[in-house]
Design brief:
The protein is an alpha/beta fold. Helices cover about 35% and strands about 20% of the residues. The protein is built from seven helices and eleven strands.
Amino acid sequence: MDIAIPLYDRFTALDAVGPYEVLSRLPGARVTFLAREPGPVTTDNGMLTLTAESALEDLPRPGLVLVPGGPGARDLLDDEPMLAWIRDAHEHSDWTTSVCTGSLLLGAAGVLDGLEATSHWLELETLGGFGARPTGRRVVEQGKVVTSAGVSSGIDMALVLAARIAGEDFAKAVQLMIEYDPEPPFDSGSTDKAAPELVRTIRERVAGS
């Protein structure tokens, strides 16, 4: 299976690399990082780059599409070359997926119209503007379209995909190999669990940025 992960300036590293660690272990998987042009692509903190081996047009019909999120996603909501690539790839894919605000790009491409979908909790309202039915669930499956919530949830989604593609036993083995057994030091990883004042502070900071 050809797995395509399109990159763009100011994507979030874990959105791409977390699922990569799982999906690259699928039998026969070929994972390709793509971009408008081959070469280095800088992440959202400006301190890390990943190399896109190929241009978007070099892999027009992958079996699995995984669109990462990040602040740069908003810059591409009317970028027709990226959206056209997503549309065409989705038409022929076995799976079309996103992590975090990557779902905004799926929405802008028309992939999520009428479907339940998720994104980073700060962008669920925005997601609804693209015809999706937003939900706060961590992983949302709608046929071949699978979306995941913020950043770390991409690993969960990739394990779900691994189970669908290669079986639950295989997915469990991958989870063990990467020792994915989260025990976060703080129970504040969602708006349901975090203190209301913390949620409010983050909303205010993002709104003011």
